[in-house]
Structure formats: C-alpha cells, structure tokens
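Input.
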Amino acid sequence: MRATTSACPAPLAPLTQGMPAAKPPKDSEYLSTLERGLRVLRAFDATHPEMQLSEVALITGLNPAVARRCLNTLVQLGYIAQYGRKFLLRPEVLSFGTSYLSSMNVDQIVLPPLQQLRDSTGDSSSMAVLSGDDILYVAHVSTNRRIRLGASVGTRFPLHATSMGKVLLAFQDAGLIDAYLNRATMTRFTERTVTTRAALEERLATTRSTGYDSALDELDYGLVSVAVPVFDGDRRIVAAINCSTSTTRISQDELVRTRLPLLRDAASEIGSALQRWPALIHSLHPV
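Output.
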C-alpha cells in the first residue's frame, strides 16, 4: 500500500502537529541546541521535502540565524544536503529508525504475529504506539491491495480518527486522557470522524468495556479496521495492533466477527514475547 500525497505543498506552519509536545528544560543537562537540531530534521516531510532557510525557520519557529547554524551542522554531519538555496534530507537519517528497530528486536518480536494475521486474513496488519496526539507505527505488514491511504513504519495518524488511536487512549490513566481531551483539536476527515469530546468519551468507554475499537470511514472513505490493546505483564497498555482493509472486501460487522479473535491471540503472543525483552517494553511506554 502506498500513501497518496498532494501535488501542491501544504502551507507552512509552526512545527507542532504530529510531534510530542516540547518539554521545558528540567536542569542544566538539557541541551537546547540538540533540541533545535532535531526540530530542524523533523521539519521535512512529504509536503515539505525541500526548503529554503527562510522556510525552515518559519516551520520550526527558530530564528533564521539559529536555523542556519543547525542546517549547516546537519549538512556537515551528512544528514541534510544542500543544493543552491534548497535543503533536503539525505538517506543517512534512516539510520536512526533502523537502529531502533534492530536494537529493540522489533522484527523478531512483533512481525511474526502480524505476518500471520496478514496471511490468515489478507488484511494489512500493524502495531502502533502513543506519540503525543498521534499514533506512531512501529511495525507494519502490508498486502498487495492498493487503498487510498497507506501506512508504513514511522507513519503518524491522529488518535481520534483511528481504531488504534482510540484503543491506545482508552486504556491510559484518567489524567492523560483528560489532558488530551482538554487540548485536542479533532480534525474532521470524513462525515464519520469523531470530532466532539462527548462522542470521543463515549467511544473510549465502549472500547474499555469491549476491549477493542473498530473504525469505518473515519480517517478516509473506504477504510475499515479493528484494533485491540497489547498489555505488558502489569496490564499496562504498551501498544495497539490492528487489521485494516477496504470496505469493498468486507463489512465492518464481518471484520470484527472474524478478525477480533485472531487479533486477541496475536496481542497475547506479542505481550508474552515482550516479557522476554523488557527494554522494548520500556521504550514503548508513553513518556
């Protein structure tokens, strides 16, 4: 599956959506220069693959002089390339993601159950974690079927518009849920997207009661999914896994009926495997 992208870049805006909230310095060990450099790296995305200095400064909220120093340093380190007045990411940035996947044994622990789900159902299957106001994909097994909206490792989607997002939020502590509900801007993607606090609170209560969530045409039309939580040994949620496919293949009721038992078995298998790799559990928990 491949995600579609707009032909025209989106307007530049301060870099806040899709990122965990910046934390204020706690002590003298906090390196603001490192934080700024990471902010510059994360400014580049599908809608802004290449930018001039002024654009980077605008989208990151940094002073142009600071943005220039960050860019020049990252060019010297090989993470950003410059041609003319434009800057863009280099493949070297992929080393960050592959280092995480290899050091945490994600492929060995998570992918086999997801692949079995894919092979048994023909659906795409994924695992995601909570990341700010988004879900962040840490594992994904796709099919050859094309749908309007694709995903891969590193993809982010809003919590409120996805089945995995609702599962991840529903099983957090009350303080985290309230903080999200107080600050969240619930963008409407379709006429079925949950966009009010009352509706989301009701959905989260149902998710806690049933142990799963299913989304139909909420993030995009033609998409249906069902998701369940993955718990650690202390029954704390660490991730969510799902099956996702096209509404032309199966109805929502049939998806839930046939996939839910398989998902729960896979979640139990992953949860048990995580007990043998506590470092991965610690890395998956929300900060």
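The longest strand covers residues 237-246.
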